[in-house]
Protein: MerR family transcriptional regulator
Amino acid sequence: MAWSTSQLADLAGTTLRTIRHYHDVGLLAEPERRANGYKSYGVPHLVRVLRIKRLTDLGLSLTQIAELGDGDEHPREALRELDTELAAQIERLQRIRAELALVRRQEVPTDLPPDVAAMIENANLSPQDRSFTVVLAQLLSPETLARYAETLKGYSRDPAVVAFDNLPEDADEETRQRVADAMREMPYMAQIRAVFPDPAGLWSDAPRGVEHARRTVVKVLVELYNKAQLDVLVRMND
Structure:
């Protein structure tokens, strides 16, 4: 008893295209041909296709199946590796679902980790300050980010902050120094200095390294704030 390609595909519950692809990638041996030139498949071909189909249904890639060879030995190591990968995927999906539940329940913004977003929800940050915080969330370690977000819970739109936000690029020397002095004396700045005595301590344990974090922070500051505001920030830390 011999089957054509279409009959083999039908028996295996797959498609002609899939059978041809198995041939192309070397997973399925070419059968003999009949006198009329048509392929003639036998039971070994059907068994092979069913095995490939079963392994792909379990999650193995065609490359992994090819590495197993043509035998029917139990693919213990391949299945063990697959199980490890699936466990990691399940853990990641469960973590995402937990975050989704928190975001949906609290209706916090989605550009920050939900716990951090919840902490700064009432901080009334300016668009620039909020953008800076979003970038920091990408740069800092989870522990440092949590400490930084905790300080923002006590942040408020102090008159000094309003003056800084409205500072024109051509602000004169006296105005810049006055804004810097006022911001330095804000209660929030005292809190920040208590948590991070050295400003560079923010990224001292950055996952991608101190230099990467420092360069990114500088680039972000230059893009978000005008020259007068940047000058004020420098004066504040002098």
